[in-house]
Design goal:
It is globular and about 60 Å long. β4 (about 70-75) and β5 form a beta hairpin. Helices cover about 45% and strands about 15% of the residues. It has twelve helices and twelve strands. The protein is an alpha/beta fold. It binds pyridoxal-5'-phosphate.
Length: about 325
C-alpha cells in the first residue's frame, strides 16, 4: 500500500480514499503520512460505496491524481463493487489512477484488473494465498507503469524493481522461502483456476450466511457481503459472557470487531485453504459457544442450514 502511494503520487497531490472501515482509514493514514491532500469519501461502516456518487465526488477536482479503495473491506465484511466503480471513475476522470487494495479479496473474488481498468492492485501472501505473512504483491497497468515516480522511498522503489525483474533479478534480497511456499500455493490454486477458486469461496460464503441467519443472527453488511469472510452481529451480552474465550477453548479463533464494532460483531474467515468441513467445525463451535454465552437458539440449526445449503449448490 505504501509502495502504491510513494511510487504513483507526488507530495501535495489531490487524492480520494474510500473510507468505509479500518482499511479505508489505513489508505488515508498512509496518504497523509506521505504529504497528499486527501479527500475522504466516507460511508457508514457496513455499506458499499455507490459507484456514481463516488465518481462525482472524485470529479469535484479534475486534477485528482488517484482514487484508493479496498476490494474487500475486511473490517466490515463488505466486498466493494470494484468493476462498477472502476467504470464510473474512468468515465468521470479519464486520467485518474484507480488503486485497489485486494489484500483479502484476491483468490476469494475474481479481480479482472485489465478488463475492469484497474491501474494498481496490491495483495499479500497471508490471506487468500494461504502462505505465511511476509510477501506483498503489487501490480501495475501500463498507464501506471508509465507514470511511476518513486519518491520518499529507497527499498520500495518500483522502477528499480521493474528494471531488475526485466533482467530476471530482484532489486534487493527477496524472501526466497516464502516465494517457494507461494509457488506451491499457486500450483494448488491453479488446479481450480481463478474462476474455480472464486466459485469455491462464493459457495462457502453463501452457506455460512445461511448458517448464521438460521442461528437467528443478523449479517453486518447491508449489501455486498464478502466471499472471504462473514461479519455477523452478536448481542453484546455474549461478549461479556466470554464468547471469544469459549471459541478459543474449542480451538477456533474468531476475529472480533475493531473500533466502533468492538463487541458488536464477529468475523468468520473462510479464505485461504479452508474447506466446507473445516468451516462446519468452526460454525459448530460458534453455535455451542453462543449457547454457553447465554444465547438462546435451536442448537444445531446453523450446522443444518449450512449442510442443506451446500447440498443445493
Ligand atoms: C489484511 C489486510 C491488509 C494488511 O493489513 P496488515 O495489518 O498489514 O496485515 C490490508 N488491507 C486489507 C483489506 C486487509 O484485509
Amino acid at each position: 500500500m505504501e509502495a502504491a502511494i510513494t511510487n504513483l503520487t507526488a507530495r501535495g497531490d489531490d487524492v480520494v480514499v474510500v473510507e468505509g472501515g479500518k482499511f479505508g482509514e489505513r489508505w488515508k493514514n498512509i496518504a497523509e503520512a506521505f504529504g497528499l491532500k486527501v479527500r475522504s469519501f466516507a460511508i457508514p461502516w457496513g455499506e458499499a460505496p455507490d459507484a456514481a456518487k463516488l465518481a462525482s465526488f472524485a470529479a469535484q477536482n479534475k486534477n485528482c491524481r488517484a482514487v484508493f479503495l479496498q476490494a474487500n473491506e475486511t473490517s466490515t465484511g463488505v466486498a466493494y463493487p470494484v468493476q462498477d466503480i472502476a467504470r464510473a471513475l474512468r468515465q468521470a476522470l479519464p486520467s485518474t489512477l484507480i488503486v485497489v487494495d485486494a489484500i483479502s479479496a484476491l483468490v476469494a473474488h475474481e479481480m479482472k484488473m485489465d478488463e475492469w481498468g484497474i491501474d494498481c492492485l496490491v495483495s499479500a501472501s497471508q490471506k487468500g494465498f494461504g502462505v505465511p505473512p511476509g510477501l506483498a504483491f503489487i501490480t501495475l497497468s501500463e498507464r501506471a507503469n508509465d507514470r511511476l515516480q518513486p519518491r520518499d522511498a529507497f527499498y520500495l522503489n518500483l522502477k528499480k524493481e521493474r528494471d531488475n525483474q526485466a533482467k530476471g533479478q530482484t532489486a534487493y534480497t527477496p524472501a526466497t522461502t516464502l516465494i517457494l511456499s507461494l509457488l506451491t500455493s499457486l500450483e494448488l490454486l491453479s488446479q481450480a483456476g481463478p474462476e474455480g477458486c472464486a466459485a469455491h469461496h462464493r459457495r462457502l460464503a453463501l452457506a455460512c450466511r445461511k448458517a448464521v441467519e438460521a442461528m437467528g443472527l443478523k449479517l453486518f453488511p447491508k449489501s455486498h457481503p464478502s466471499q472471504a469472510l462473514t461479519a455477523v452481529e452478536v448481542p453484546a451480552a455474549c461478549f461479556s459472557a466470554g464468547l471469544m474465550a469459549k471459541l478459543r477453548e474449542r480451538g477456533y479463533i474468531f476475529a472480533g470487531g475493531q473500533d466502533q464494532l468492538k463487541n458488536k460483531i464477529v468475523r468468520v474467515a473462510h479464505l485461504g485453504f479452508v474447506d466446507e468441513y473445516e468451516l462446519l467445525g468452526a460454525l459448530g463451535a460458534f453455535e455451542t459457544s453462543l449457547a454457553l454465552s447465554g444465547y438462546r437458539h435451536d442448537l444445531g440449526a446453523g450446522a443444518q442450514a449450512f449442510l442443506k445449503t451446500l447440498a443445493t449448490l
